[in-house]
Design goal:
The complex is a heterodimer of chains A (303) and B (226). Chain A is an alpha/beta fold and 303 residues long. Chain A contains 11 helices and 8 strands. Helices cover 30% and strands 23% of the residues of chain B. The chains are: A alpha/beta (303), B alpha/beta (226).
Chain lengths: 303, 226
């Protein structure tokens, strides 16, 4: 037991809700506090992104610590892009010492997408090997090299990402099985807009019995406009936005309201999918929307 | 083989403009085959440098020569006399050749005429791709003969990542996803079990890591008298 709130909620069998907080592109703690306040009591834990899309931002561990001060439980995100296994383990010991108990292991977006495309990437490990490392650092009480940790180990409730919409599709459930075998306790999926495809993936996941070994949280993001939908459809690799959703936003008098309606509809459908244990609401730079979505989807109050 | 590209002529002019006597030395191996630093390219480069000198009213005496392989001592010995007679040498070999020339003829100034790019092969006339990362611990036996170290943008050992779409890498639409190819190849060989098992963290100590790498083969070494 890593002892996180998210872990308790999932283990109790309740439908879990996680949110997302993108740290600022500066050193201002107040921005983190404000965003945290919008999510407090609305979700069970909040992912703190780690320089997402390879843009330099306040570190996940620092912003996560500020979130904790505001009474919000963080899920520390860690990518393999910017640190080697020495840096990663050092940061994980530090994050645990500061009180973080949830960790999401990611390979990370390539630096090409960010604001320092000239940088050198690391990728000493990939996400799968980071999961393995995190399990060692906690339950295994040893460093990646095999050396025993004397004293407090860094026991996290360990998560991973899964993208049901990437290719090759038939390998995606098998790859999830690898993540479970590597130590993932929970999974947060890529943003779901194409429900039939997601259900097809879940069916493959159930065939492998994975829904009984790992908690799966479906990823959702409210769209603010048809333009945002079109942009995500065209420019975000591994994201599947059906045309009919874009048309629904186009035809709406209030696209933001319609974006929230769509998000609530998707959450209600996800609740009915066997093996889905919760939702991960990623309201990108729109944290205010999370409370409304959670309320309307019948997810409040949180335990 | 080693694939290289000529540096922009402007950069080579900038590197050589202080010198009045130059020797451009091509290499007859990899860089000849990839049309970057062979006999024809050295002549063209020498003409370009001459023209630039003329335009800028600088005096320049320039000659060209070739070594069959600039990466082996015995193939460059014959250049000694010509090298002696110039102020600087432009080597259009890969970085290995440039370094050997610089060491053999030190303290003579030897300048690079190429950017050494990667180990790879031509896939069609005028198109070369990288295929080997030279990591020192080959994984091709487990990946269907497709190198994820060189060909995956994230050098993943447990790919494909979530950015693989329609067989292409998220980094650019013209880059094939190596892991998609690995999946297709292993499936066709009925050996998918090779990638459904977790590949543990790689030992990178055999890769670029601890200073200049070295291989010593005692069976091949010639004993030196005490």
């Amino acid at each position: 037991m890593a002892g996180s709130n998210l872990e308790k909620v999932l283990k109790s069998g309740q439908f879990a809700v996680t949110g997302e907080l993108g740290p600022p592109k500066n050193a201002d703690p107040e921005i983190v506090r404000k965003k945290a306040a919008l999510l407090k009591g609305v979700v069970d834990a909040v992912n703190i992104t780690d320089c997402q899309t390879a843009i330099v931002r306040m570190s996940s561990i620092a912003a996560g610590t500020i979130a904790m001060q505001e009474g919000v439980e963080p899920v520390i995100q860690m990518t393999c892009r910017d640190r080697n296994r020495i840096g990663m383990q050092s940061d994980l010991l530090g994050a645990h010492a500061l009180g973080a108990r949830n960790l999401l292991c990611l390979t990370g977006d390539h630096q090409k997408f960010g604001n320092h495309p000239q940088s050198k990437n690391v990728f000493d490990l990939d996400s799968m090997q980071l999961l393995d490392l995190a399990r060692d650092l906690g339950q295994g009480a040893r460093f990646q090299c095999g050396e025993e940790i004397e004293g407090a180990a860094a026991d996290f409730f360990i998560g991973a990402a899964a993208n049901p919409f990437a290719d090759p599709f038939e390998f995606r459930a098998l790859r999830l099985a690898k993540k479970v075998a590597a130590g993932a306790n929970f999974i947060q999926t890529q943003i779901i807009y194409n429900l039939p495809k997601f259900k097809e993936w879940m069916s493959a996941v159930r065939d492998l019995g994975l829904h009984e070994k790992v908690y799966i949280l479906g990823g959702v993001t409210p769209l603010k406009s048809a333009g945002m939908g079109r942009y995500m459809q065209k420019n975000v690799p591994g994201l599947d936005v059906p045309d009919e959703l874009i048309d629904r936003l186009k035809g709406a008098g209030d696209p933001q309201q319609e974006g929230i309606n769509i998000c609530v509809d998707i959450i209600n459908e996800l609740k009915e999918v066997e093996g889905v244990s919760g939702v991960h609401i990623m309201a990108i730079e729109w944290e205010e929307a999370v409370a409304t979505i959670a309320e309307r989807a019948g997810l409040l109050p949180r335990p | 083989m080693i694939i290289a590209e000529q540096k922009p002529v402007k950069e080579i002019i900038e590197l050589t403009k202080e010198h009045k006597k130059l020797l451009v030395v091509g290499c007859g191996s990899c860089v000849t085959i990839c049309f970057a630093g062979g006999e024809r390219e050295t002549r063209t480069l020498a003409s370009a440098l001459s023209l630039a000198a003329g335009r800028e009213k600088r005096k320049l005496k320039i000659e060209t020569d070739m070594a069959l392989r600039q990466c082996e001592w015995e193939f460059i010995d014959g250049l000694a006399e010509k090298v002696d007679a110039v102020d600087a040498v432009v080597s259009t070999a890969c970085g290995v050749g440039v370094q050997l020339m610089a060491e053999r003829f030190a303290p003579k100034l030897v300048l690079p005429g190429l950017n050494t790019s990667f180990m790879g092969l031509p896939v069609e006339q005028g198109v070369w791709v990288e295929n080997c990362g030279g990591c020192g611990h080959c994984v091709l036996a487990y990946t269907g003969g497709i190198c994820p170290i060189a060909r995956c943008a994230k050098s993943m050992l447990n790919g494909p990542c979530g950015g693989s779409q329609d067989g292409k890498c998220e980094v650019a639409a013209d880059i094939d996803c190596a892991w998609h190819e690995i999946y297709v190849r292993l499936k066709s060989q009925d050996r998918l079990e090779l990638i459904t098992e977790l590949k543990p963290a790689k030992d990178w100590s055999s890769s670029r890591d601890g200073g200049q790498r070295k291989i010593v083969r005692d069976d091949l070494k010639i004993p030196r008298p005490e």
